[in-house]
TrEMBL record:
Gene Ontology molecular function terms on file: calcium ion binding
Major subcellular site: secreted
Listed name of the protein: Uncharacterized protein
Protein keywords: Secreted
Organism of provenance: Bradyrhizobium diazoefficiens SEMIA 5080
Length: 1200
């Protein structure tokens, strides 16, 4: 039957109806008489069904808009309340059980079951989106007082996922099952008999015997009570403020207590957790093994003992003090937790979780300290253990001290500044998997005696390994910057393989040591595929050995992964490689590289003082000998080019007794001084060495060895016996003998230095030379320091440097043996033998001695105008009158030339006395003295130590090499001399002096003099004004005149003192110290490194190019012109020179305006001001040393 809008149906008097459909606006009433009436299979589509006393409705379906009301009265021995069973409530449908009874109801999404005023619902199933509400109570009419209070109750309700059960206003739930749904129990109502003694004031909402599981939630609050609750399978009980839970059992769930909540007699079993957030009461709680207590949000727990196998977590805002963590118990500190005076028993675990920092914790014996947050200043005792990180939950630890305990640094975690002492160990782990977190890291670790750092696939940096400490790298571990001190050890071995996504082959990560520094007594060992890059060995030991099979199966990969070291710098100590190990690009500054059997060394560079030993079975690849020694032992293998780059030695010890052999490796770049030591080829007196094209062949007559040379200009080798009886070859060039003079004249057995101009040079670096001098022809005696007479006119100068040998040779004196009148000639053969085994001879030196009975006196005619001829001996010549021409013709003559004389002294040590003006003197290489001219005289002499003392004006003096003493006259004279240590004293004005190289002294004059000197340590001290002074390189001292002087100096170390004002100085790359007196001086600098001390007004410094100038400004109005960005200048005292100006050429330092300069001024950090001249690596600067920025103004700068 279908009831439509406005229809009503009364089912009473004991009748039954079936399959009624009730539409919106229709009403069906079931019951109401004292006989039971029933309605079954009713469908309520928007209408209403009222089930009253003695009415029963079964299998009803309530759809949207439909309502089923179930009512009754509780009267003693009265009628039965309305009852419904097997009702299904769909979306929008509602069942109101008001004092009635409902059983086996199903509440679907959007459906609601309300149980009120003492109603009862039993066996209700609430599915997702459905709601069951239980509230209120009623009083039974009964002949007792107080009458019974009947409370609304839901019994054995099942609340499925996202279903809801709300118990409020004194309602009750019994034995509910919350299986993924939500249940709330809250509030209370006043008890209707509150004024009756013994009755409660309120009736609290209640739930008893509830089971919460399947991620379901039960919340109790605001005076409500739950008891006998069981939490399992991730069920949760929230006890909010005012709520009470008693007798709760937590199996695999969680109970959360908020501030003001109460939980009494709780039992927390394995996997169960109690969370206390605030000031809550959880008295009587029993924590069994595997359970957890969490406190936070203001919870203060004092004096708590965490039992064995129980975990206590202190959350944000939680406070734990005076507590004990028992053996087997765990304490977890979350971010924001506060701990104080906590005692950990042996066997306890402490966890510092993410966001929490633990400072100063001591990990005692048996304690495990897990860190997922931060730990600082931890001490780990023997038996204690610290674990950093948990997979991708990284942790950090700093300043840890491990005293016999253990620290494990896990993935994504970092340990910094750890100190590991005796018995302690630090393990740094990692894993190479796609998308896995990074490996563990440790930095600045110190490993002391008896301690160990194990890096298994992890990464460590800046470790220091002291005596007795060990750093182990395995399975792809990586270490960078390890310092190994005496007694410390690094071991690196093993590898791991990483398979990138999509790649057919894996990538091998090998245990690697980079930038290690191994000190004296330290050790670095590479084996089992371990590698090292750019290690520095400072007196320690590095070994490289072994290999492992490559695990990638990549056909392009090598079959084995060899232990290897590349870029090693060996300063002292040793490196050895063996058993398949490889070293590459080793630089040997000292120490020994030992290539043992099956070891390989490629691209080694062996510098002076270092040795590479290649033992039998060892392999030397391309090697550069840069001053050191490559020693190939018998059985060694050299299979690539050997290059010389600096004087070094290739030693070959392979025995060669007979026959010929060709050395396998090409030898490149061999230069003078390089040696090949064939210790296996016996030396004989007939041993030979020849170079033909690119082939070098050495033979002892029975056996020979041939080498192939490249990139060399060496065509000669010295040959000698080495220390073991073998042949030592030295790449060499012939020494040279130069400057020998033949036909040197002497007379009457006068002593002569026949080798005064001879120079011996030896192009072979560090070579020594010995000299054999053999006399032939006329006899004589040779004497001098270091000379050894071998008899029969043969002498020797013992081996020394070529320069020393030259000096000894210059000092030798020869005296011809007595002979009759006339001339005799002695010829000298000089044979120089270099220590490299090469000899050169020279026979160009000869001396002719002329014997004459005595001095000859020659007088010219009194009238003058004569040509006077001297003898070849020593003469005294008197010329009278004027205009005589005198020829000395040899010997040491004394000549009085008269007026206007012309004199020629071709040889000997002569003295010439002049009178008057317009004299002319020429001479040879003797030591000549000329005096007496009164002007307009020309003097031209050869090499010798000459003395000129002239007077008058307009003299022209030209001298050769020698140590000359000259007074050129009284002014306007010209003096020119070659190389030598000359002394010139000027008088008057307008003199010109031009001297060659030497240590010259020029002084005097009254001004307007011009002095030009070559290289040497010269001294110039002029008087007057307007002088022009030019010097070459050397250490020069220049004292200019009294002003308006011009000074030009070359690259030297000069001291220049200016007098007067308006001087001009040009410095060309010198290192000069310049001082002035009055001012208006101009100094131009073209490079170099100079210092100026300025006094007076209006001075100017013009600085060009990459100079370095230090200026001290004691004056006023100094102008400094800077024309390059690459100079570094300092100016002191500039802050006191208000008129001082620094003028920058436009664009220097990228400045184009004074405003640019002012904005760029910066403190130099020492009380001064710095102006940078650009930002590049070669940019210079101007440092106003003692001038603050505030003392500098725009008026002090200009752009030109």
């Amino acid at each position: 039957m279908t009831l439509h809008d406005g229809d009503t149906m009364d089912v009473s008097g004991g009748i039954s109806v079936d399959s009624t459909t009730i539409l919106a606006g229709a009403l069906q009433t079931v019951g109401g008489s004292f006989a039971t009436s029933t309605a079954t299979h009713t469908v309520i589509n928007g209408g209403e069904q009222d089930v009253v006393f003695d009415g029963v409705a079964s299998y009803t379906t309530i759809n949207a808009g439909g309502v089923q009301r179930v009512t009754g009265e509780y009267i003693h021995e009265g009628p039965t309340p309305g009852e419904v069973d097997h009702t299904t409530i769909n979306g929008g449908g509602e069942q109101d059980v008001d004092t009635g009874i409902a059983t086996t109801t199903t509440v679907n999404s959007g459906g609601v079951q309300n149980v009120t005023n003492g109603g009862s619902a039993s066996g209700t199933i609430v599915n997702s989106g459905g709601v069951l509400r239980v509230s209120g109570e009623t009083v039974e009419t009964a002949p007792v007082y107080p009458e019974p209070v009947i409370r609304s109750v839901a019994t054995v309700a099942t609340i499925n996922y996202q279903g809801e059960l709300d118990v409020t206003g004194g309602g009750t739930a019994v034995n509910a099952i919350v299986n993924g749904g939500v249940m709330t129990v809250s509030g209370s109502i006043p008890d209707p008999f509150a004024n009756v003694p013994g009755q409660p004031a309120v009736d609290a909402s209640m739930a008893t015997g509830t089971i919460v599981e399947g991620f379901g939630t039960l919340t109790v609050s605001d005076g409500a009570l739950v008891s006998g609750t069981i939490l399992q399978n991730f069920g949760t009980l929230n006890v909010d403020a005012g709520g009470t839970a008693t007798g709760t059992t937590i199996n695999y769930g969680t109970m959360v207590l908020s501030a003001g909540a109460t939980a009494i007699n709780t039992t927390v079993n394995q996997y169960g957790g109690l969370v206390v957030l605030g000031n809550a009461d959880f008295s009587g709680t029993v924590f069994n093994a595997g359970s957890t207590l969490q406190i936070g949000n203001g919870t203060i727990e004092n004096g708590f003992t965490v039992p064995k196998s129980v975990t206590l977590a202190v959350l944000d805002g939680g406070v734990l003090s005076n507590s004990v963590i028992s053996a087997g118990a765990t304490l977890i500190a979350e971010a924001g937790a506060t701990l104080s005076i906590t005692t950990f028993q042996s066997g306890a675990t402490f966890v510092a979780d993410y966001g929490y920092t633990e400072n100063g914790f001591t990990v005692s014996d048996g304690i495990l300290f897990k860190v997922f947050g931060t730990a600082t200043n931890t001490t780990i005792s023997a038996g204690g253990k610290q674990i950093l990180g948990n997979y991708d939950l990284g942790a950090t630890a700093s300043n840890t001290v491990i005293n016999g305990g253990e620290q494990n640094v896990g993935l994504a975690s970092t340990a910094s500044y750890t100190t590991i002492n005796t018995g302690g160990i630090q393990r740094v782990a990692g894993i190479y998997l796609h998308d896995a977190p990074g490996p563990g890291r440790a930095d600045h670790t110190t490993v002391n005696n008896g301690a160990e750092q194990d890096v298994d696939t992890g990464i460590v940096t800046s470790t220091t390994v002291n005596a007795g400490g060990v750093q182990n790298l395995t399975n792809g571990g990586f270490a960078s910057g390890t310092v190994v001190n005496s007694g410390g050890v690094i071991n690196a071995s093993g590898e791991t393989i990483y398979y990138p996504p999509g790649g057919p082959y894996g990538i091998v990560f090998r245990s690697e040591v980079d930038f290690a520094v191994v000190g004296s007594g330290g050790q670095l060992h590479l084996f089992g595929a371990g590698i090292a890059k750019k290690a520095t060995i400072n007196g320690g030991v590095m070994t490289v050995s072994g290999s492992v099979a490559d695990p990638t199966n990549d056909p392009s990969a090598p079959a084995v992964d060899a232990s290897a070291a590349s870029g090693t710098v060996l300063n002292s100590g040793s490196v050895s490689v063996s058993d398949g190990g490889i070293v590459t690009s080793t630089i040997l500054n000292g120490g020994t590289l030992d290539v043992l059997d099956q070891g390989t060394a490629n691209a080694s560079t062996v510098l002076r003082g270092a040795t590479e030993l290649v033992e039998a079975g060892g392999i030397a690849g391309a090697t550069t000998i840069a001053g050191g020694t490559l020693d190939l032992k018998a059985g060694a293998i050299s299979d690539d080019t050997i290059t010389f780059s600096g004087q070094g030695t290739l030693k070959i010890e392979q025995k060669l007794v007979s026959g010929s052999s060709a050395f396998a490796s090409q030898i490149k770049g061999i230069a003078l001084g390089d040696q090949i030591d064939l210790s296996g080829l016996s030396y004989t007196s007939g041993a030979t060495v020849t170079v033909s094209g690119s082939k070098l062949t050495v033979s002892n007559g029975a056996a020979s060895e041939t080498f192939t040379l490249a990139d060399t200009s060496v065509t000669r080798f010295g040959i000698a016996k080495d220390s073991s009886g073998g042949i030592l070859l030295t790449a060499a060039a012939l020494p040279a003998i130069a400057g020998a003079v033949s036909g040197q004249a002497t007379s009457n057995q006068a002593a002569i230095n026949p080798f005064a101009t001879v120079t011996i040079t030896d192009p072979n670096a560090a070579a020594t030379d010995s000299l054999i001098i053999t006399l032939a022809g006329a006899a004589g005696i040779l004497s001098g320091s270091g000379l050894i007479s071998l008899g029969n006119g043969t002498y020797e100068l013992a081996a020394t440097s070529a320069a020393n040998l030259t000096a000894e040779l210059h000092a030798l004196t020869f005296v011809a043996s007595p002979h009759g009148d006339g001339s005799v000639t002695t010829t000298f053969t000089l044979s120089d033998t270099s220590s490299v085994g090469l000899t050169v001879s020279d026979t160009n030196t000869s001396v002719t001695d002329t014997h004459q009975a005595g001095t000859t006196t020659i007088d010219g005619p009194a009238s003058g105008y004569a040509i006077i001829q001297g003898t070849t001996g020593n003469d005294i010549i008197h010329a009278y009158g004027m205009f005589n021409t005198i020829h000395g013709n040899g010997g040491s003559d004394t000549i009085y030339a008269g007026l206007y004389g012309t004199v020629d002294v071709p040889s000997g040590d002569s003295a010439v006395y002049l009178q008057g003006i317009v004299n002319h003197v020429t001479g040879g290489n003797g030591n000549v003295t000329v005096t007496g001219s009164t002007g307009a005289t020309t003097i031209a002499l050869g090499n010798g130590n000459d003395t000129i003392d002239a007077s008058g004006y307009g003299n022209v003096i030209t001298l050769g090499n020698g140590n000359d003493i000259v007074h050129p006259g009284d002014g306007a004279s010209q003096t020119t001399a070659g190389n030598g240590n000359d002394r010139v004293t000027l008088s008057g004005y307008g003199n010109t002096v031009m001297l060659g190289n030497g240590n010259d002294v020029v002084a005097g004059g009254d001004g307007a003099n011009s002095v030009t000197l070559g290289d040497g340590n010269n001294t110039v001290n002029l008087g007057g004004m307007g002088n022009q002074i030019t010097v070459g390189s050397g250490t020069n001292t220049i004292i200019a005149g009294s002003g308006s002087d011009n000074v030009v100096a070359g690259a030297g170390h000069d001291t220049i003192m200016l007098g007067g004002a308006a001087n001009h100085v040009v410095l060309n790359g010198s290192q000069a110290n310049v001082t002035n007196q009055i001012g208006q001086d101009v100094i131009t600098v073209n490079g170099g490194s100079d210092q100026f001390n300025f006094a007076g007004f209006g001075n100017q410094a013009i600085i060009n190019g990459p100079a370095h100038v230090d200026i001290i400004d004691h004056g006023t109005g100094l102008t400094v012109s800077v024309n390059s960005s690459s100079q570094v200048d300092t100016i002191s005292g500039f802050g006191n020179d208000t008129l001082g100006i620094v003028a920058l050429a436009n664009g220097v330092g990228d400045y184009h305006s004074v405003a640019d300069i002012m904005s760029a001024l910066r403190s130099d950090g020492h009380g001064g001001t710095l102006l940078a001249l650009g930002s590049g690596s070669n940019a210079g600067s101007i440092d106003f040393v003692d001038t603050a920025i505030s003392q500098l103004h725009a008026s002090n700068f200009m752009i030109v």
